[in-house]
Design a protein that fits this description.
alpha/beta; 19 helices; InsJ-like_HTH; HTH-like_dom; Transpos_IS3; IS3 family transposase
């Protein structure tokens, strides 16, 4: 029930008494119920402004009985009775009448608030003396006592309960001990030894079972995470699980990975700009359109550098923008033109008759060499270059380099350049054939190409 200030109530009452409107019109004007307006007016007429003041009065049984007798004697309604005795809510009078008819004057007395100081306990059945029992009853009692003693001894032998520092075991620990002994002893005897209620025991058993309901999917998540050496986050792991027929939500996988302490080891990628030398260049025909409708339609290439104990290794790959597959690559200890030339020869050898991809690169000096340009012209391949100092024009290739170094180079230690070369070869095979991409419907680049074109 809404509470109103005394000044507001008095204002409404005075408007009614001044004749400026009826109870319904005044109630509508102030957003009130017309019965509330009538109650305020009747209370003001009977008791003055005191009737408009809020009060939290508790009524005793004698007052309640007095109100009821007056209402029955005068044949008043509950509203009229509430006005006469300045009772704020007329519904209380009806409640008092029902209580009186059901239990008399005792039912009108207020109940004591709060919990009782002592819990009521059922009287225990006293033990019958042995002298009053026959032989069979004595044997049965002795057998029961023996069963309970054996259960108590077995319960106390548990290391957890024998440890002096852990004498006060929790309910969960007690339930775990009882569950372990249920095959050898009756449950009732074990619960008595553990001072554990039967309902509490079954509750703890249910909680323990519910806590481990994700045990199977946790094992699968951990297996996928280990197989990919920590490179997968929860999105890719979810895609792998769904491919195996496991129906699971990505939020569940994320929560379970947090519980297991698993997270992708791939570091956040940072943007670094570099302004190269200006030479003979060609227009930027790719124009950041990094999507392709079929294989061998758009290629991107670049060169990146690795450092192993002061020795450098250079990698020159070419990527197909249709599925992100590394078509060909070449490694070298020195950034000579042969690095790019050999890579281009391998890539051109994989083209089918009629394939004429657009090959995009930055404005590196290798891609401006006449020999490189002639190799493209012989195969009628169009060349495209990024604008000066704008690595975003070749963002697809830069993204691959970031993934390669984050998932492979920064997560491993290499003793030599030869080891790095061998591991790069293995990683690129893994990247093409095994590593799934969400934008490829959860397939690897080779799987996606084979599914769409059978190549």
């Amino acid at each position: 029930m809404a509470k109103y200030e005394e000044s507001f109530k008095l204002k409404v009452v005075r408007q009614y008494l001044s004749g400026s409107g009826g109870s319904k019109s005044i109630a509508a004007r102030h957003g009130l119920d017309y019965a509330t307006v009538r109650r305020w007016v009747n209370g003001y007429r009977a008791h003055g402004i005191a009737a408009l003041r809020g009060k939290g009065t508790s009524y005793d049984a004698a007052f309640k009985l007095k109100v009821l007798k007056r209402m029955w004697r005068e044949h008043w309604s509950q509203a009229q009775t509430a006005t006469a005795f300045d009772i704020r809510c007329a519904a209380h009078i009806g409640k008092w009448a029902r209580q009186y008819h059901a239990g008399g004057i005792d039912a009108l007395r207020p109940l004591r608030k709060g919990r009782p100081k002592t819990m009521s306990t059922k009287p225990t059945k006293p033990d019958v003396p042995l002298t009053d029992l026959d032989d069979k009853q004595i044997i049965a009692r002795q057998n029961q006592e023996l069963i309970e003693l054996r259960a108590e001894v077995a319960y106390l032998k548990k290391p957890r309960c024998l440890d002096p520092g852990k004498e006060a075991c929790g309910c969960a620990e007690k339930a775990q001990v009882v569950t372990g002994l249920r095959q050898q002893h009756p449950l009732a005897a074990l619960l008595k030894a553990a001072s554990l209620a039967r309902s509490t025991y079954y509750y703890q058993v249910k909680v323990a079972e519910a806590a481990d309901k994700h045990a199977e999917i946790k094992d699968r998540i951990r297996a996928v995470y280990v197989r990919h050496k920590g490179r997968y986050g929860y999105r890719r792991i979810t895609a792998v699980l769904r491919q195996t027929g496991q129906c699971v939500n990505h939020k569940t996988v994320q929560k379970l990975m947090q519980t297991l302490g698993l997270r992708s080891l791939v570091r956040p990628k940072k943007y670094r700009s570099y302004r190269g030398e200006v030479g003979r260049v060609v227009p930027n025909l790719l124009a950041r359109q990094f999507e392709a409708n079929r294989p061998n339609q758009k290629w991107v290439t670049d060169v990146t550098e690795f450092n192993v104990h002061g020795e450098k290794l250079y990698l020159s790959p070419v990527m197909d923008l249709y599925n992100g597959e590394i078509v060909a690559y070449e490694t070298s200890r020195r950034p000579l033109f042969q690095l790019v030339g050999n890579m281009l020869k391998k890539a051109l050898a994989r083209l089918r008759p009629g394939d004429r991809p657009v090959v995009h690169s930055d404005q590196g000096w290798q891609y401006q060499q006449p020999h490189y340009r002639r190799m493209l012209q012989v195969r009628s391949i169009t060349q495209s270059m990024s604008r000066k100092g704008n690595c975003l024009d070749n963002a697809a290739m830069e993204s691959f380099f970031g993934t390669l170094k984050a998932e492979f180079f920064h997560l491993n230690r290499f003793e030599s350049v030869e080891q790095l070369q061998a591991d790069i070869r293995r990683y690129i095979h893994y990247y093409n054939h095994d590593r799934i991409k969400l934008k490829l419907k959860g397939l690897s680049p080779v799987q996606y190409r084979a599914q769409a074109f059978g190549l």
